[in-house]
Design goal:
By secondary structure, this protein is mostly helical. The protein is built from nine helices and no strands. The protein is rod-shaped and about 105 Å long.
């Protein structure tokens, strides 16, 4: 039991001596580390803390004749290790964070998703042939003539399907802005939605 209490007393003395060194030498140690190459000013406190943590783990302090010299030698080694690790890390700058920002406006995206859902629902009210005519016109960019040939119908039927589709979609979507708004909606719809 006496060995446990003597070890605790020695440990307590060691910690109080280390705390005294920390108070006394913290500012000179930070200046010393700041002069070392490879340690940024943002890392000064981290390196200093690492130095004191290493001293905490050292259990043979009676072998240290000159604590200040020993502390600065440990600091030089830690700063050197820190510098080597920093060279292996990828460099970064706060300006890189700007590249991570998504340019998508949440409100615009939400409105677009809502419009697309409304358009999907409105397109289901059209006949299958009319939906196919719209798909061929907007997604494949075919002319009325090409659509007529592909579907084996007359150009007049294709034109009628497009006009009727516009009329029906405007009614279902409740839009008063004619061609431009509807065309924008239809152009943004993906091919598999039509």
């Amino acid at each position: 039991m006496t060995t446990d209490s003597s070890q605790r007393t020695a440990c307590g003395e060691s910690h109080s001596r280390l705390a005294e060194w920390f108070r006394e030498l913290r500012a000179p140690l930070r200046r010393f580390i700041a002069r070392r190459r490879g340690v940024s000013s943002a890392d000064l406190d981290d390196v200093a803390q690492e130095v004191f943590l290493r001293l905490l783990r050292y259990d043979r302090e009676e072998l240290v004749a000159d604590p200040k010299s020993y502390l600065f030698k440990v600091a030089a080694n830690v700063a050197s290790e820190w510098s080597m690790r920093a060279q292996q890390r990828l460099p970064h700058a706060s300006s890189w964070l700007d590249d991570l920002i998504d340019d998508v406006d949440v409100v615009d995206n939400t409105e677009r998703v809502q419009r697309d859902a409304e358009l999907d629902a409105a397109l289901t009210t059209l006949s299958p042939r009319t939906r196919e005519v719209l798909r061929l016109h907007f997604h494949e960019g075919l002319t009325r003539e090409a659509i007529a040939r592909r579907l084996n119908v007359t150009q007049r039927m294709v034109k009628r399907d497009i006009v009727n589709a516009y009329t029906r979609l405007r009614f279902v979507l409740g839009e008063t802005d004619h061609r431009s708004s509807l065309s924008a909606h239809l152009s943004s719809v993906k091919e598999n939605r039509v």
